[in-house]
Amino acid sequence: MFKKRYTAPQMLGVFFLSLGVFSGGTYYLMKNWIGDPGALFQIVRTMHLIQEHYVGETDRKAIYDGALKGMVGVLNDPYSTYLDNQDFQALSTMTEGHFGGVGMVMGQKKDSQFVVVAPIEDTPAYKAGIKAGDILLKIDGEDLSGQTLNQVVKKIRGQDGSQVTLTLKRGEEEPRDVTVTRSDIKLKSVYSRMDENGIGYIRVTNFNEDTGKDFGASLQDLRDKGMKALVLDLRDNPGGLLESGVEVARYLVPKGPIVSVTDKDGNTQTESSSLEKVDFPLAVLVNHGTASAAEIVSGAIQDTGSGKIFGVKTYGKGVVQNIFLLSNKTAVKLTVARYYTPSGRSIDKVGIEPDQVVEAANEEGSNQLQVAEAYLRQQLQQ
C-alpha cells in the first residue's frame, strides 16, 4: 500500500553535482545526505570506469538503474523498491484501476518465498483457481530464488493475450503448473447486492482511486432500497491506497480516529471520522488475503465496536509506502511509516484476529457469509 506521490530531487543531478567542487552549500548538502562525500564520488567513478574500461557491452541506463536498485535493495524491505519506467507505469495503472497481467497481488515472506496475497476477482488468476497463500516457485520454468518481489511481478505481467506458466505450491501438496492467459485487468473494486430480508452485501476487492466514491454510492443505493444491516466482505482484499481505505472507513466508523500513521521521526498524522453513529448492524468478513488498507478498515471497525469481524486472521501489513518521483517517469517506493488502529495496535506481521473465527468450509467460503448473515438477523431481532 502506498499513500501519496511526492517529488524528490533528481538523483542523477545530485550525482553530477558531486563531480564539482565540494565547497560551501554543496559540501554541506553532500555531507548531510550521505555522511561521506567521498563515498558518493566512488559511486560516480565506478559508473565512469565501467563505461570507459569494461571490455564487454555496456548499457548506461542499465548501469544507472542497477545502482539505484542496489541502494534500495540493501534495505531488505519487500515493500521498498526502485521503479524503472516500466515498473512505475505498471504501478500507476494498477492504482488507477487498470493494468495488464493475470490479476493477482504478490507478497514476499520472511523466508524470501513469494506468496499470493490475493487473486483479484474475475481475473485470469482467479478463474484459474489460484488462491491466497499459494507459494510461487517458478515463472515459465525459471526458478525465482534470489529475485526481488518487483522482478517477480514484472515477469508475471505481460501483453494481453500472451500466456505465462506459474509453478505453485499449496500447503503440503506437490507443486503444480498453472498456465494462465494474460488479459487487460480492469479493476472494478466494489460489488453490492441485497437479500429479501434487507441485509445488504458489499464486497470490496481492492482500494484504488475510485473505491471510496463507488463504496459511498453502493451504500446509498442499498439504503434507498431499505437496507437494515450490512455485510462488508474484505476477504482476499490486498489493500491499495491508504486514502481510499480511510474514505470507506468514514462510512462505517463513528466519530473519532480511524488510523494513525507515524513516520521515522515519530511524527504522527491521524485520520478521523466525523460520522455521528453507525445506524445499522455491521458484519465484516476477513481472511488471510485481507491486507494493508483492508486491515485499516477492519481494524478501525473492530476497535470502535461499530461491527463484528468474522473469518480467519488477516495478512498483517501495517506499514505505509510513499512514491517519490525521480526523473524520466522513474521513482522510488519506500516504506516511510507504520500505521496503528484506533486503540494503538500495530498489526504489522501480526494481523487482525476476528471476533469470531470461522474457517472456510469450501473454496467460496459460503459458510462464513452464512454465519455473518445469521449474526445480523439476530441483531435485527433485538
TrEMBL record:
Query: Taxonomically, which superkingdom?
Result: Bacteria
Q: Name one Pfam family in it.
A: Peptidase_S41
- PDZ domain mapped to chain residues: 91-157
Q: Does the keyword Membrane apply?
A: yes
Q: Which SMART domains match?
A: PDZ (SM00228), TSPc (SM00245)
One GO MF term on file is: endopeptidase activity
Protein's UniProt keywords contain Transmembrane:
yes
- One Gene Ontology biological process: proteolysis
Give the keywords, sorted: Hydrolase, Membrane, Protease, Serine protease, Transmembrane, Transmembrane helix
Q: Which InterPro entries match?
A: ClpP/crotonase-like_dom_sf (IPR029045), CtpA/B_N (IPR055210), PDZ (IPR001478), PDZ_6 (IPR041489), PDZ_sf (IPR036034), Peptidase_S41A (IPR004447), Tail-specific_protease (IPR005151)
Quick one: a GO cellular component term? outer membrane-bounded periplasmic space
Membrane spanning stretches? 12-30
Q: Which family does it belong to?
A: Belongs to the peptidase S41A family.
Protein name (record): S41 family peptidase
